[in-house]
Amino acid sequence: MENDQEEFSSRAVEPSHHIQNTQESIRLSLPDGRVDTQVKGSMLLGYVKTIRANKQMDWGQYLRPSDWEIIQGSVLASTWYPFEFFCRLGIAIFKEVAHYDLNRVREFGRRNIQEILQIYKNIVVPGNPQQSLLNLAEHQEMLMQGNPSMKAISLSPQSVRYRIHASLDPVERPLLEAFCYQMAGGAEVTAERAGGQEVTSRVLPAGDSFELEVSWKSEDWISL
Fold it and tell me: What's the pTM?
């Protein structure tokens, strides 16, 4: 586990240089001329730190020269970045660091959410895990422009179930599944921060999507 913690390091790494162009939005043009969906920098911080902390790995087979301009620069939480860049980082880390292990991805999600909850303090509602998890899904939609989308489809006093869907090619389905496990880890921590006890999560296939169910016990229930 020591090595796992090093690989998924969340420690601050000083950028080697600042990107000269600090415009509000960094866009990526697709081959057909469309503008790619964008992702807020707050979703990328854990990914970029992991890449920087594992310089010895062969990232060249996954990342483009333009990606390194962002990775080696200053990634800003409030800036928009290309969704395809986010996907390339996710694929690289899933294969090279997690070694296709979804449980390790879940643990990465638990660590990665810490910084996001520090930036967006209004996600967690103390004493209300359900509302906190709904807030998490709402922020997810905003931070990734709804791709992947994360919609609550079922609520009960001690559980929330989401439908997670993305506009990806069928060959990229493993990436969506890995993303769901990352979100599972993040949702667990969110529910715990809100006061949920014995929090559990599970990811289930649902056609071309996945469902994520997060359950917990309240203090009142435990004391009965």
Answer: 0.81
The residue assigned the tokens 């179930």 is 161
Chain mean position to CA 120: 14
Tokens of 135: 């807030």
d(CA 127, CA 218): 9
pLDDT at 93 over 60: yes
Q: Are residues 15 and 92 in the same domain?
A: yes
Residue whose tokens read 């649902």: 206
Domain assignment present for 115: no
| Total domains, the chain | 2
Taken in order 143, 137, 214, 196, the sign of the CA dihedral is positive
Q: Please, are residues 133 and 156 in contact by the beta-carbon 8 Å criterion?
A: no
Q: Which of 46, 31, 195, 27 is nearest to 114 (CA)?
A: 46
Map residue 197 onto helix, strand or coil.
strand
pLDDT for 66 equals: 93
Residue 67 forms part of a structural domain:
yes
User: In sequence order, which residues have a C-beta less than 8 Å from that of residue 188 and are 6 or more positions away?
Assistant: 106, 110, 199, 200, 201, 214
